[in-house]
Amino acid sequence: MRYTLSCVLIFITCFCEASPIIYVNQVAFDSQGAKMAVIRNDTKLPGATNFLLIDEAGKTVFTGVLKGPLRIEQWAKGAFFYQADFSVVAKAGKYKVSVKINGKQSLSDEFSISDNALAITTLPSIIGYYNNQRANTPTELAADKQLLLYGSDKTVDIHGGWCDASGDVSKYFSHLAYANYMSPQQIPLVTWSMINAVQSIPATLNKLNMYDKTVDEAIYGADYMMRALSKDDYFYMIVFSYFNKDPKARRVVGLRANSVTTNEYQCAFREGGGMAIAALARISQLKKDGDFKSAEYLDAAKRAFAHLLIHNTEYDDDGKENIIDDYCALMAATELWIATDSSFYQNEARKRAHNIENRMSTEGYFYANDNGRPYWHASDAGMPVVALSRYLSKEKNGANRAVALNTIKKALDYNLRVTAEVSNPFGYARQTFRLKDKVQDGFFIPHENETGWWWQGENARLGSLATAAIVGGRLVYPEKGGWRVKKELVAYASNQLSWILGCNPYSICFMYQFGKNNVPYMSSNFGHGSGKGGISNGITGGKDNADGSGIDYKTEDNGNEWRWTEQWLPHAAWFLQAITAISEEK
Length: 586
Description:
The strands form 4 sheets. Strands 2, 4, 5, 8, 9 and 10 form a 6-stranded mixed beta sheet that branches. The two termini are about 45 Å apart. Helix content is about 40%, strand content about 15%. It has helices at about 5-15, 115-130, 140-145, 185-200, 200-205, 210-225, 275-285, 295-315, 325-340, 345-355, 385-390, 400-420, 460-475, 485-500, 560-565, 570-585; strands spanning about 20-25, 30, 35-40, 50-55, 60-65, 65-70, 80-85, 95-100, 105, 110-115, 145-150, 155, 170, 240, 250-255, 260, 430-435, 440. By secondary structure, the chain is an alpha+beta fold.
């Protein structure tokens, strides 16, 4: 891994330099969306302090009053934060926010405002990032065509797919399966997200000359999943590199803590199987062939679904289904229902939707299991709402729709409430979790959790919640104009994406080669590493805090800096879903 001195200095100075400091999305705001900067000052400002929005020519185009002060002592002791809302400004252009304090003018980093800005500015690079993450070097292709199954002398051909992260060339349907409640969706989520974009925003993709490229990349992902489908109709979960430069070290494995590998490599619904089925069923509707025929994608999805209906709890590490099985199986059943119009998949989708609905707490968060564990997730927190919303695109029964819509409404109301009930200048999405039998709310996931070791920045979680706010909000809080959802949800979604793009306490734009300040470059085996358009893990709670309180971002930490700086497939996938939702064509 390589670090530049400038990047380290950025980290040191952004959070420590003399006030005021202006934090802002360093990339772009959509003309129709919410727009906010945050100002930090070490002393309380006089009442009715103004801020200015200045265009490229130096002309003031808007004057507003700062909202605040807001305090967040566990992040910045003694500091005062103020919000500068300029959502009413819609004219395309390049701008900076200006504040004058004690006679001194301070300017933000430059950003742009334009129609559909986030998609137009970032989408080509996101698809390009995945293209560059392909595990298609001659070395990888040769090794992955003859992969040993862990604990066996049997080999399988699972070439293709995307390298998981800028520091890890392994390939995952999911991981953390042994922890039961934290499994993220990885390669299958990426594939589904691309197909979703192709079907939801074809005009935008064509305008960017990205339609065919996005289809090609999605088919590449589908072809990998087809090879990963065993002859027994379960998916192989992980191709693990052991972080070894020798390609012959690669194995098909199940994975536990500290890179301990097993032969438990069969995917349950929650371990990538459900989303793989969903992606294959959905891509079959494009009627385009890759290395496999379009009809083969659908047939594979049917066979894998039938297999998991029988064997799913055998593959779940604790032998019990939980909410992750439910929302992944709901996505699978819904896409098969859409693709086939079969009452069989209709019934399976309704069953899973009801399971999710029955997991709703009186407070508005979901229960992960039958024992009151709150559902929280470092990357897929918005998935229950997204899955229910996708289900409702097919469900026409009034009674079933009413229950699902009420569940979505409760979840979104909770997200807004828990985020707003404390001083929160950046509008960072908060969450509910249980630690040592105490249910509590916090900004970041608890570092003490079922994995025993895993926690990292949560940029995928933010993208998933932004997506949920838009797609779910259009169903339960629709409005005309703008993003076609009520303004509180627009602001909530915008704040999460702006945090990723630089409006955070470290002024780091986590989308690589965008904005002013980026994370350091990270290299990996076989020539892979950080790529333009990839998104790094991001900011966490304080390193030594079991409950995730405090705040941390490190570029060096004795080999553990990956928690903050490493790019990871789900981050860009959820960002892609969020900008697709924002840009969705009527």
